[in-house]
Amino acid sequence: MIPVGFEYVRATSVDEAIALLVEHGEEASLLAGGHSLLPVMKLRLAAPDVLIDIGRLPELDYVRVDGDVIAIGGGTRHRTLESSQLLAEECPLLPAVAHTVGDPQVRHRGTIGGSLAHGDPASDLPAAVLALGGDVVLRGPRGDRTVPITTFYTGVFSSVREPDELIVEIRVPRTGPAGWAYEKFVRRANDWAIVGVAVVDGRIGLVNMGPTPLRASATEAALADGASIEDAAALADRGTDPVSDVPATADFRRHLARVLTKRALTTAAG
Amino acid sequence: MKIAITVNGEETAADVEPRLLLVHYLREVLGLRATNIGCDTTSCGACTVLVAGESVKSCTVLAAQADGLSVTTLEGLSDGPDDLHPVPAAFRSEHGLQCGFCTPGMVMATVGLLSENPKPTEREVREGLEGNLCRCTGYHNIIRAVLVASGQDPDELTGVAARPGVERSPAGGIEAAPGFSTGGPA
Prior knowledge:
heterodimer; A: alpha+beta; Uridine Diphospho-n-acetylenolpyruvylglucosamine Reductase, domain 2; Uridine Diphospho-n-acetylenolpyruvylglucosamine Reductase, domain 3; Enolase-like, domain 1; 3 domains; five-stranded antiparallel sheet; four-stranded antiparallel sheet; 11 helices; 14 strands; 33% helix; 24% strand; globular; B: alpha+beta; Ubiquitin-like (UB roll); DNA polymerase, domain 1; 2 domains; five-stranded mixed sheet; 5 strands; 28% helix; 12% strand
């Protein structure tokens, strides 16, 4: 499968990438690892006129402590998250979730900023960042703005990111030893999650239970009121809107959300 | 656009369309046909090569993205059929292939895996090769080949050695991944 032809420009800095976005407008797409964009271009579901390659910018590739939070460059690859000693100590949910993305070859290319920007409801990392209560830092010609992940997504594959903005940083709290777990249900190795549940420090993020990653708010509230894990997990699909598709019906997804939430909460409780 | 890629240690250059995939650059521009195209959808791993030392699926990388970098394919591993790199040598000694279509990708994924984890457990091998499919389902000997290539005894790691009289059975070692064990106690 061959993509429709396009112009390719490799940006040498974030500033240059933004200037190129301004120049080309909505005709351009950012290319980081390319493992979401290139497949849809090969299927000709997307045909940008210009690809702006930001996949080799050292200024977007970092994991560091910044006060109370961990700051992660938008171009940081899944493999880097997975093997980060800093994250293993300060925010262990994130490397564990990154380890479940695709397969090693995919993780060598894919980036956290690309995953968040793509906004596939079946992606692992957006729900993990949601469970963490993280922030997304966008940079564009008007400067930087920080958007809480809770308000970042507006629908399937869509977010508040403007066409001339790029994700420069993801900020997540230093959760340290707080209980965490990630449960992901797949039918085949290296597949997308049919449903996933990320738990950390009492917050619950759901993968593939609606057009955007969702919090299991009813379960969180029940836990805060002293409900048992079993009783609280039974509410995990409240307020969700899962689709029926080839891998699973909506009812099966609701069932999975309840079961996986119970497992994740049990694991997180140690 | 003009690109220059170091492939198997040799400088290569061409004027290509930006949409040219790396696997097509290797196979059609350079004539290096070891790298196979299987699914063409980032699933099967048959097209796995190393870019800057890391395994990638070359059906999902633009040749332009590898511009200026170093790429290694199966052709670049060994000096010849009588002087095989340890990974293809182990695939041969353990018969880690059936039809052979997945083998170039399996070998390159293994080289990448062992560069990151030189002494993997059986489970780490299974997880490390999860991006490579063998439609002959010949995984058992592939796992053994990877363990041999890492200088380990596959009978020890898979628990076979602990069971006298059981020869080259797949199963049961404590590191075996759940759901993959097919044997039982002798």
